[in-house]
Specification:
The N terminus is likely disordered. The chain has 554 residues and is an alpha+beta fold. It contains 16 helices and 21 strands. It is globular. It folds into 2 domains: 227 residues, 3-Layer(aba) Sandwich (D-Maltodextrin-Binding Protein, domain 2); 218 residues, Dipeptide-binding Protein, Domain 3 (Dipeptide-binding Protein, domain 3, Roll).
Length: 554
């Protein structure tokens, strides 16, 4: 069903570069929060599934194919066509974007006899792809144990902390496996469902190839079989005739096309050479949207709220940022509304958990005492700096990346942030890094002063709290026993409403402390051709699962 876009009259698309230049020169008038919100959910009947056709979509060229040796989204997104997880996030038009309910996948059900034991019962008769060295053998519990033993012991796995509370994994019988935890961890199912690092693999493949870096090692139980990999060009998948989900996939195959240039991708989408939007998560860039809607009104469009966003990290273990007054001053020096306007995007202000996680993110006006630090108030910012002993200002460094990993919008934001900080006496010298160097150093807390970065995409509330605040090498060097105690308490709380109360209190506490200065979380517009049926966008790397659920009605 075609969904026309309805936007508030004050949200007008402008020339982004022109507005940014004007903002840097003269400033932008602040408006009150909230910013904008996504339009309502879509509906409508897709009709009966139709078999056949090749889905052509924008994809990525992965650095390699071993999901236990990288957290890179390009690897995990590519593997989503080939592999399966023990449990997964539900897919389909009935799922509200920004929610990620967990359902059975390779496991047909699970039991939880106590708070530290999870028993998974696998579906019988599930088969690996009919390629050597597996040749279509049945998936068994030993495969699951091997997968997660490797995940937990591989020294190069950047996601190992996700399962740090798992004591051991045991095979109960041929189709039953149990996870025994060191202590209660209520997010285990959410972790196992995430489309990053959790793909189930077979021991023969690792033993045959030595690792999983080669494309030929991508042998799984997923909806598609990898047929051909052309580096920096495309990956071609064909339908898995033995996929265990009845009737899926409907399409005969997928061409996962590498398109690094955004303009080229848009031109291909306009010409019908791509079946879904040309940007990440099959979306359209906001500043391309109005023109595309005018020229191609029959395309499907749907606004969805990102579960990521932008932030400023700082060395809270060193002066002057160890002083909460300085951190609060930094926050109040930034006109978030001007940032949104200058970038020509839509967005919402974000607390510690981005608004894209709709059931767990607390609205800014409910942050209590910390809400005021989201208001643009340069006069109060200067007063706080003076009170902290910096009436003459602060000299600092501002690290960021201008590489393709984050895109040019981030660099534009940094320039405007520099100007806002300068207005209150904080002189920030910009240090630009190549994307890989930024990830290896600054993203792991190895920087001086301030750093501009992105909030990682999350599918459950524990991750955006753990990684910035509790993880040992967190960016801002936070070491706060009060926050850590609340964090550990929510991990043990089975009752969802009681857990939400703790998570909301953590967001209020984070807003008061301002260990990170959160900016805004963008609203993006997913788009797809009118003949693509039963497609439902969401912020997840499970492109393969969504491709398996749709069909083409050309």
């Amino acid at each position: 069903m075609h969904i026309p876009q309805t936007r508030p009259p004050h949200i007008q698309r402008v020339n982004r570069r022109a507005l940014l230049k004007a903002s840097l020169a003269a400033g932008v008038v602040m408006s009150a929060w909230p910013l904008t919100r996504p339009t309502a959910l879509w509906g409508g009947e897709a009709g009966q599934p139709r078999r056949g056709g090749i889905l052509r979509v924008r994809g990525f060229d992965p650095p390699h194919f071993d999901h236990h040796l990288t957290s890179n989204f390009k690897t995990n997104a590519t593997l989503s066509f080939v592999h399966s997880t023990l449990v997964r996030h539900q897919i389909g038009p009935a799922v509200r974007p920004g929610t990620f309910p967990v359902e059975p996948h390779l496991a047909e059900r699970w039991d939880m006899p106590n708070e530290t034991t999870y028993i998974f019962h696998l579906r019988p008769g599930m088969r690996w792809h009919n390629k050597p060295p597996l040749n279509g053998r049945e998936l068994v519990a030993e495969d699951v144990k091997f997968t997660f033993d490797r995940f937990r012991t591989e020294p190069g796995n950047p996601l190992r902390d996700l399962l740090a509370l798992v004591e051991r994994i045991e095979v109960v019988d041929r189709l039953t496996v149990q996870f025994l935890l060191k202590e209660p961890f209520v997010w285990l199912l959410d972790v196992l469902a995430q489309p990053a690092g959790m793909w189930i693999i077979a021991p023969e493949v690792v033993h045959h190839f030595g690792d999983l870096k080669q494309a030929e090692s991508a042998i799984g139980t997923g909806p598609f079989v990898l047929e051909r990999y052309e580096p920096n060009v495309k990956t071609v998948f064909r339908r898995n005739p033995d996929y265990f989900r009845p009737g899926e996939p409907s399409v005969d195959g997928v061409e996962w096309v590498v398109v690094d240039d955004a303009s080229t991708g848009l031109a291909m989408y306009r010409a019908g050479q791509l079946d879904c939007g040309p940007m990440e998560f099959w979306t359209v860039r906001q500043h391309d949207l109005e023109a595309l809607q005018k020229s191609h009104p029959r395309l499907q469009y749907q606004d969805i709220q990102s579960s990521g966003g932008g932030l400023l990290a700082m060395r809270t273990d060193q002066p002057p940022f160890h002083d909460v007054r300085v951190r609060r001053a930094i926050s109040m020096a930034l006109d978030r509304q001007a940032l949104v306007a200058a970038l020509g995007v839509q967005g919402q202000l974000t607390p510690a958990i981005p608004p894209g996680l709709v059931e767990w993110s607390l609205p800014i006006d409910q942050l209590g005492a910390g809400a005021k630090y989201y208001q643009y108030d340069p006069q109060e910012a200067r007063r706080l700096l003076a009170e902290a002993g910096f009436a003459k200002g602060v000299q600092t460094q501002l690290s960021a990346t201008g590489g393709t990993g984050f895109g040019t919008d981030l660099l534009d934001s940094v320039q405007l942030i520099q100007r806002f900080l300068k207005d209150v006496g904080v002189i920030a010298e910009l240090k630009l890094q190549e994307f890989g160097a930024f990830i290896a150093t600054t993203a792991r807390g190895k920087f001086e002063g301030l750093a501009y970065s992105l909030i990682p995409i999350a599918w459950y509330a524990d991750w955006p709290l753990y990684r910035p605040y509790v993880q040992p090498d967190n960016m801002s060097h936070v070491n706060d026993p009060t926050f850590t105690a609340m964090f550990n308490a929510q991990r043990r709380t089975q009752d969802v409403e009681a857990r939400k109360k703790i998570v909301f209190d953590m967001q209020r506490y984070a807003a008061e402390q301002q260990y990170y200065v959160y900016l805004f979380s963008g609203i993006v517009t997913a788009s797809w051709q009118p003949y693509v049926k039963h497609y439902a966008p969401n912020f997840t790397h499970d492109y393969g699962g969504r491709a398996a659920a749709l069909w083409l009605d050309r």
